[in-house]
Amino acid sequence: MGARKKNAATLRKEAKKQQYFAILNNCPTSPRKMRLVADMVRGMEVNRALDVLKFSSKEASGRVEKLLLSAIANWQAKNEGVRLEESNLVVETIFVDSGRILKRLRPAPQGRAHRIRKRSNHVTLYLGSKETAINE
Length: 136
Fold this sequence. Notes:
The chain has a single domain, classed as CATH 3.90.470.10. 20% of the residues are buried. A hairpin with a 5-residue loop joins strand 3 and strand 4. It is α+β, with helices and mostly antiparallel strands. The protein has 5 helices and 5 strands.
């Protein structure tokens, strides 16, 4: 690895230490259904987002709620003396990427077969404080 690449990688690592995030990989829900839930909480305060997810009727909201709790735990590990209510945490970024697709066959009439695609996704959630979101 060259010196320039190494310096850039070190800077990226240092910047990543200042961010609070959680990642959910290979979640067996279609990305389209998960994006509906992700769009509900994007930009919300953390406590309000937890309430919205808890009382949502969508199946994917339980998984996103657990992911948000994990991101909050990551934030609390680095900020031990600060209370969650006073921190003004918001869901800064949340995005859903497509994961692997399991391909299955379903029998069809007259000896044919139809392909069934069982989709999965990856969800990434970043937390930020309200002040930094306004300043940037």
